[in-house]
Amino acid sequence: MFIGTYTAIVTPFKEDGSVDEQAFQNIIAEQIRAGVDGIVPVGTTGESPTLSYEEHIRVIELSVKFAKGKIKIVAGSGANSTKEAIYLTQESEKVGADGSLQVAPYYNKPTQEGLFQHFKSIAEATKLPIILYNIPGRCGVEIGIDTVERLSKECPNIVGIKEAGGSCDRVSQIRLRLGKKFNILSGDDSLTIPFMSVGADGVISVASNIIPKEVVKMVKAFLNGDSKTATKLHLKYYPLFKDLFIETNPIPIKAAMAMEGKIKEVYRLPLTSMSPKNREILKATLLNCGVLK
Average pLDDT, whole number, for the chain? Predict the structure, then answer.
C-alpha cells in the first residue's frame, strides 16, 4: 500500500511566523511533478510540535487540497497523549488524508504494553491505514518487534512502519516476521538503499524536499532491480543525506530550501537558524552535489 518515495514535507512559515500557504502549494506542486508517491505533512520535518491543533489540521487539509488526489497524503497525527493522537487522526481523516503516521509516544516512555494499547486505541478510532513510526533517538523508547507483530495481527489498519532506528537487522527481522504485505519505509535517507537491500519498500525522505526527482529515481531503480543505478545515486547524494542532519532536522533542510529560494528561512522556537560554520558546510555540499549552481 505504501511503497516508494514519500516526502516528509516542511512547513514553510512567513516572516511573521504564520504558515506560508502559497509557498506550501508551490512545494507540493514540485513534489507532484517529480513523481513522488506521497507526502507526509506535519511530521518531525514539518515542525509539528510547535503547531497548534488548528494549524496542524489546516496544513493537512491544505496538503489534500493542493495534491488534488495525484499523490497520497500521510498525515503526521501522532502524539505522546493517546487522546490527542486520536483527535488529530480523526480530524485528518475528516479532511481527506490517505493515511496516518503514528510516532511512538515521546518523553513519557511507556512500556511495550503501553505502546500496544496506545496504537491499538488509535487504530480502533479511525479507518485510515496507519504507519507506525519508530525513532528511539527522539522518543526515548523503541517499538519492539514483538509489539509491531502483535499490532499487525490485531489491528488490520496498521499496515506498515517507518524505521528510523538505524538498524538493518531490525528491518530484516520485521520483514521475516510480518511478511511482504507489511510495508517498511526507511526513516533515514542515508539508509534507504541499505534498508531496501534487506526488505524495505522505500523511504519517507527529508532530502526529497530539495531533490525529489533524484530520490524517486534512486528508489524506483532499486525496486525495479537496477541496484547499480540505485547505488550510484546513493553514493552521489550520500554527503547531502548526511549534511542535512548536521544540525537538528528540519533546520538544515529549511536552510537549503531557503538557499534555493523556495521558502523563507523561518523557524519556530526552540528551533533556530544554523550556525555560520555549519551553513557553509551545507552550502558547499549543495554545490558539490549540483543542487545549487
Answer: 97
